[in-house]
Amino acid sequence: MTTLVLDHVTKRFGGLVATNDVSLAIPPARITGVIGPNGAGKTTIVNLITGMLPLTAGAIRLGGRDLTHAAAHEVGRAGIARTFQNIRLLREASVADNIMVGFHRHEAVSVTASLFGLPSARRETARIRVRTQALLERFGMQRFADHPAGALAYGHQRRVEMMRALATEPDILILDEPVAGMNDVEARELGDIFEDLARSGMGIMLIEHNMRFVMRLCANIFVLDGGRLIAEGPPDAIAADPAVITAYLGI
Ligand SMILES: Nc1ncnc2c1ncn2[C@@H]1O[C@H](COP(=O)(O)OP(=O)(O)O)[C@@H](O)[C@H]1O
Ligand SMILES: [Mg+2]
Fold this sequence. Notes:
This protein is an alpha/beta fold. The chain contains ten helices and ten strands. It binds adenosine-5'-diphosphate and magnesium ion (MG).
């Protein structure tokens, strides 16, 4: 089982403790929420998991594998993909090309094979096209395949980011505020896709401000405040937890 585990993880930026002794688990086949007020340390945790920031203390494991000191590309190859809170796309490139970039984790064919147009390279390219098409269909984005990604509406750009992350066929998908700025209909459509992915076995870590969305989708929720874990549990318990209410109302 490929559960992602954070074991007493701490991250200091100078005098600021952005992540303070946090332990949590993201199991396969369900959606796990990570919530907390702005500045709680949610994105920092994602950056620690994905090898974009070094830990100050603690350990990170995926299944039996130690990823504590893994570089970003190693984390990707190990089966963890993410989206960014601020969209990062190749704006001039087409939607389809942006998705195909995500497939590089699985590119088995050598650069020379593809340079010489060998059949193995052609087969690989054809396979990637088919999988890109399948992702476009899943997200209802076929009609935008050839559009420049940067020209799309915000909600559609977010979808492209998700498709690119999914192209790596990750075991764990980390979504940093995926429905921020979206309306309820768009959010619900994406929520349905996330549930589908979880049903297919993927472990999803969902960071989100939209409480209704988190409560509806998540089996288990971790709450951060000031870098510390202040609560963990199913949605009902979290919604009724006095420490969580205090953190959100600031009283
Ligand atoms: N690279 C960095 N250098 C210094 N401080 C940072 C850095 N990244 C985040 N922080 C600080 O860490 C704290 C947590 O930030 P962040 O993880 O982005 O919170 P959240 O995603 O929950 O809003 C904030 O006080 C933020 O200013
Ligand atoms: Mg953040």
